[in-house]
Every structure is written in structure tokens, then in C-alpha cells.
Design brief:
- The chain is mainly alpha-helical and 490 residues long.
- The protein folds into 2 domains: 184 residues, MFS general substrate transporter like domains (Growth Hormone, Chain: A, Up-down Bundle), CATH 1.20.1250; 202 residues, Growth Hormone, Chain: A (Up-down Bundle).
- Helices cover 76% and strands 0% of the residues.
- InterPro entries: MFS (IPR011701), MFS_dom (IPR020846), MFS_trans_sf (IPR036259), Proton-linked_MCT (IPR050327).
- It is found in: Membrane.
- This is MOT6 protein.
- It is a multi-pass membrane protein.
């Protein structure tokens, strides 16, 4: 795909009709194929341990790398989308995902799986998913909220179907042949990408927002050139490289927002800490059930129960949180959902009976629906939309770090103690502490700003004032999307 086609994808006018609904269907399938895929890895956990004689910690690195790369590859995906366009990046992701799983079927050691299934498949899933979400922003304006809500149901469908398919194929033909088949299934991301054709421009010229903008630092460079400095002068070249490097970091990693915006700072730290425990049940629930005598088919069904309930609860949670009553208060709903996730883990500690685990999955799924529906809505509340893309870049990279190290560290603890209960103790600790930190910190921040505003009103008697740390009013839905937007999900 040429640069012109990429620009066409990024600057065209969305249509909200016709082919846009085919693109939405492709986005649903993409989210099921990519975000839903890591949930089935727990089905293979025990077989991989026996095959490679690996510990819990060593085996858990494989899904951890996959999920961390899927979440943390957003900035790289954004650069590729800007350069080559959405369709190319989705198809590239499908090719990488399929190649990674096909290669995994020939692995001779667990460390080789880190590279093939972990890095290559994770990166491919990241490209396909995030570029697929980005293109929705250009195909939909009036129905954008509905389109994103419908697309997110693909994750729940993936959570429901992948574990059942994995257990069936594992029983019939073993994990190597299953991974080979998975490679072929993930290649369907290329088909979804082919559907996402670039939108035709509404007029013969680019919109004003698509015109090249003068880059910071260019005036200083021009000044040096006007003073007689050669464009190839070493000092000038070094200065230009530093400036461009800073511009890239500023665009995709919003360190300035992190330092200046207390709301964004608290939320990013809280979610990053939360991710240390959030993924643990997904990785260890099936091995825990099998370890306690639950039949393998029933154990795989547990993850499917979580996904099935998500199909119905997540859209309802999104609609409920979008009510104006919750404007500016969504962070408290999010903290409550995280707290419920943490408390639900104690059910597994009480008993490992299948009926009790089903109850656990129902409660966990309801809480997870709230977390998944609110994660990025809260981020939009605390960050202005014109900086949302860069704020999201730093946000996803930091959470990917804890997603990477959380399961292996817990697996190491299980190896030492031979007690799977520590999986749920750890998960509860991180989730509950993160929920309390975010809820109490935002409450204190809100009180602080109210006092500041009251003091300002007393001194200056302004007619109107608003909350300065966080933006509590969402932007209008018909606002054009950022030039490059990458979104992940939990």
C-alpha cells in the first residue's frame, strides 16, 4: 500500500453506511481472532509442561509475552498505520500471527515458544487488532459508539469459542497439530484486512487537518541555515536528529501529560499495578482446576463461561456508564469493578469444586465486563482527546510491562510452595490495592480541586469555572478521530 493510500485511509470522510457495516463485521471477527486468542493458552498449560519438562514459571512466560506484546505494541502499530495504511497493517498482522503459530508447532523447547507464539504471534495480533479498531474511527462518525460496542463483542465471542475449540483439537490431535491449525485460522485476519478497503476522499483535496504542519525545531534549523550553517554540518544534523527523536516520543508517549495531569498519573499507575494480578486467573484457572481433579473438558469450559457472560454484560455496562449521571464519576465505577474482581478470587481459595468454580467465573465475568467497558472511557475522561493517542501509548506500554512479569512471578511462587492458592492470593492483593488506590486518590484529588476552585471563586468571583486536572465532560461523538489511534482492551 502506498503512502497515498495510507493518507486516504487516515483522512477520508467516514460514511456510516454501506460498506462500513461489512468493515464492522470484519472488526468483530478480528477482535475474536486476536484479543480472544490468548485466553485458550491455559488449556495447553499442563501438556506444555509435560512436553518440555518446564516449571509453572517457565511455562507462564509464553502467554505473558504474547499478551504483553499485544498490549504494548501500540506505538509501533501507529507508526506503521501512518506510513502504510490500516488495510496493510491488518493483513501484515494476520500473516505474522499465522506464521508464529505454524512455527510454534515445530518448537523443540519452551524458550522457542517465547519467540514464535509469544513475540511473533503477539505482535501480529497487536497489528491486526489495533489497526482494525483504528479504521472503525474513519468508517463511523454518527454510529461510532455503537460500532465500537458491537466490535468489542468479538472479544467475548473469542473467549467463549477458543477454549472449547482448543480442548476438542487437543484431545483429537495433540498440541502440535492444534497449533498448526491455529496458524491457518489466524490467517483469516488477512481476509478481514482485505475487507477494510480505504475510503474514497469526499473531494479532490485533502482536508485542512491533513496538511503538513510545521514541526517544532524547524525554525531553529532555518535560523542556523540563514546564518550560513551547512545543512550537512555535524552539529546541525545532531540537533535535527535529537529534535525529531523528541517529537516522536512526544507524539506517541505522553510523558508531559503524565507529569502535569494528576488524574492521568493516578489512573496510569493504578491500572499498571492492577495488571500484575488481572491476568493471573486467565493463565492459571484451567491448570488449577485440572490440578484439583476437574476433568479437562470441564476445566476448559470455565473460560468459555466467562466469555459467554461477557457477550451480554459488557455492552450493558457500556450503556450504563455512558449515562450522564455517571459523567465524571466513571473512575469510581471502574474502581468498584476492579475491587469486585479482587474479592471474587477468594471463592477459588474456599473450594475447587466445579460448581464453585462456575460461580466464581460468573462473578468474575460480571466484574471483568465493567473493567473492559470502562478502561478507555475513563482514560478519555482524564485526558483531552487531542492528546488521547499519545496518552494511550504510554498507558499501554506501562501496563504491558506488568502483564509480562505478573504470571511468571506468581508461577515461581507456586513452584516454590506447590500451592496454587497463591495465584488467587496474589491476584486479589494487586486488584484490591489498585482499586483502593485509584478510588481514594481520585476522591482526594476531587476534594482538593473543589477547595481550589472555591478559593479562586472567593478571590476572583468568576462566573464559571471547571475542573482543571481532569476533563469530566466527554467530547462530542462526531469529532474526527486522531490521525493515528491505537486501542487495546482488557
Amino acid at each position: 500500500m502506498s503512502q497515498g493510500e495510507a493518507a486516504e485511509c487516515g483522512t477520508a470522510k467516514p460514511q456510516d453506511r454501506g460498506w462500513a457495516w461489512m468493515v464492522l463485521l470484519a472488526a468483530v471477527l478480528l477482535q475474536g481472532l486476536t484479543l480472544g486468542f490468548p485466553c485458550c493458552i491455559g488449556v495447553f498449560f499442563t501438556d506444555l509442561q509435560h512436553e518440555f519438562q518446564a516449571s509453572n514459571s517457565q511455562t507462564s512466560w509464553f502467554p505473558s509475552i504474547m499478551v504483553a506484546v499485544l498490549h504494548g505494541g501500540g506505538p509501533l502499530c501507529s507508526i506503521l498505520v501512518k506510513r502504510f495504511g490500516c488495510r496493510f497493517v491488518v493483513m501484515l498482522g494476520g500473516l505474522l500471527s499465522g506464521l508464529g503459530m505454524v512455527s510454534s508447532s515445530f518448537c523443540k523447547s519452551i524458550s522457542q515458544l517465547y519467540l514464535t507464539a509469544g513475540l511473533i504471534t503477539g505482535l501480529g495480533s497487536c497489528f491486526s487488532f489495533q489497526a482494525g479498531v483504528t479504521v472503525l474511527g474513519y468508517y463511523f462518525v454518527q454510529w461510532r459508539t455503537l460500532a465500537n460496542a458491537v466490535a468489542s463483542t468479538g472479544v467475548s465471542l473469542g473467549f467463549t469459542l477458543w477454549p472449547l475449540l482448543s480442548q476438542y483439537l487437543l484431545d483429537e490431535m495433540g498440541w502440535r497439530n492444534t497449533f498448526l491449525i491455529f496458524g491457518g485460522i489466524l490467517l483469516n485476519c488477512c481476509v478481514c484486512g482485505a475487507i477494510m478497503r480505504p475510503i474514497q476522499l469526499a473531494s479532490g483535496s485533502l482536508p485542512q487537518s491533513a496538511k503538513p504542519q510545521e514541526e517544532p525545531g524547524s525554525r531553529a534549523e532555518e535560523a542556523q541555515l540563514s546564518n550560513g550553517a551547512s545543512p550537512h554540518h555535524p552539529t546541525l544534523l545532531q540537533h535535527t536528529r535529537r529534535t525529531k527523536c523528541f517529537q516522536v516520543l512526544q507524539k506517541y508517549l505522553a510523558f508531559d501529560i503524565f507529569c502535569q495531569n494528576k488524574g492521568y498519573q493516578i489512573y496510569t499507575i493504578g491500572v499498571t499495578w492492577m495488571m500484575m494480578g488481572f491476568a493471573l486467573p486467565h493463565v492459571y484457572l484451567v491448570p488449577y482446576a485440572i490440578h484439583n481433579g476437574v476433568e479437562e473438558r470441564k476445566a476448559a469450559l470455565l473460560i468459555s463461561v466467562i466469555g459467554f457472560i461477557n457477550i451480554f454484560i459488557r455492552p450493558l455496562t457500556g450503556l450504563l456508564s455512558g449515562h450522564r449521571v455517571f459523567t465524571g464519576r466513571r473512575i469510581y465505577l471502574f474502581s468498584l469493578a476492579v475491587l469486585l474482581c479482587g474479592l471474587s478470587n477468594f471463592i477459588c481459595v474456599i473450594s475447587a469444586e466445579f460448581s464453585v468454580l462456575i460461580l466464581y467465573c460468573v462473578i468474575l465475568s460480571i466484574a471483568m465486563s465493567g473493567v473492559g467497558a470502562l478502561t478507555f472511557q475513563v482514560l478519555m475522561d482524564v485526558v483531552e482527546m487531542d492528546r488521547f493517542s499519545s496518552a494511550l501509548g504510554l498507558f499501554t506500554i506501562l501496563e504491558s510491562i506488568t502483564l509480562l512479569i505478573g504470571p511468571p512471578l506468581t508461577g515461581f511462587l507456586v513452584d516454590i510452595t506447590s500451592d496454587f492458592h497463591y495465584v488467587f492470593y496474589n491476584s486479589s492483593f494487586f486488584l484490591i490495592s489498585a482499586a483502593l488506590f485509584m478510588g481514594l486518590s481520585f476522591c482526594a484529588l476531587e476534594k482538593k480541586n473543589k477547595l481550589r476552585e472555591a478559593s479562586k471563586a472567593h478571590l476572583d468571583n468568576p462566573s464559571r469555572y471547571q475542573y482543571s486536572e481532569t476533563s469530566t465532560e466527554p467530547k462530542a461523538e462526531n469529532q474526527s478521530p486522531p490521525a493515528v489511534e491505537y486501542i487495546t482492551s482488557v
